[in-house]
Amino acid sequence: MTESVTQELLRLNQKLLDSIANADWASYAELCDPTLTCFEPEALGQLVTGMEFHRFYFQLGPAKTPHNTTMASPHVRVMGDVAIVSYVRLNQRVDADGASSVRAVEETRVWQKQNGKWKHVHFHRSM
User: Fold this and answer.
1) 21, 43, 89, 110: least CB-packed within 10 angstroms?
2) Contact predicate 15/8, CB 8 Å
3) What pTM does this model have?
């Protein structure tokens, strides 16, 4: 694995996280395979397949207060045309009263090289 592949995957993953924070559906959809699968707290233990479940949250709009998303301690493993990016996602927010908070979630995201481009194909997120 070359350093440039690692950096590309970390850049794409951060772009994905930014698209989520900013409710940028067009960017999110461009980065994801339409058959994306996931396990996440919002799915209550169910395997979600496809994009419609996620679109609902994007339609709520971006955060109305200042926010920041950081990947802490990221680890990238590339296995041919598949890569796994694991990290702790730190979400910093300021509420309407000016109080700041941080939430940490553990995430593993799977990327697959398709037609020369990395696509996000699966993730697992835990609180």
Assistant:
1) 43
2) no
3) 0.91
Cβ contacts of 61 within 8 Å, gap of 6 or more = 23
Name the CATH topology of 3-126.
Nuclear Transport Factor 2; Chain: A, (3.10.450)
Q: How far apart are CA 78 and CA 114, in angstroms?
A: 14
Name the E strands within 11-81.
32-39, 48-49, 67-79
Stated length of the chain: 127
Q: Would you give per-residue pLDDT tens digits along the chain (127 residues)?
A: 468 999 999 999 999 999 999 999 999 999 999 999 999 999 999 999 999 999 999 999 887 888 899 999 999 999 999 999 999 999 998 888 889 999 999 999 999 999 999 999 999 999 8
Of residues 126, 125, 123, the one with CA closest to residue 38: 123
Question: For 42-127, where are the alpha helices, taking DSSP H only?
Answer: 52-59
Between CA 51 and CA 36 the distance in angstroms is 7
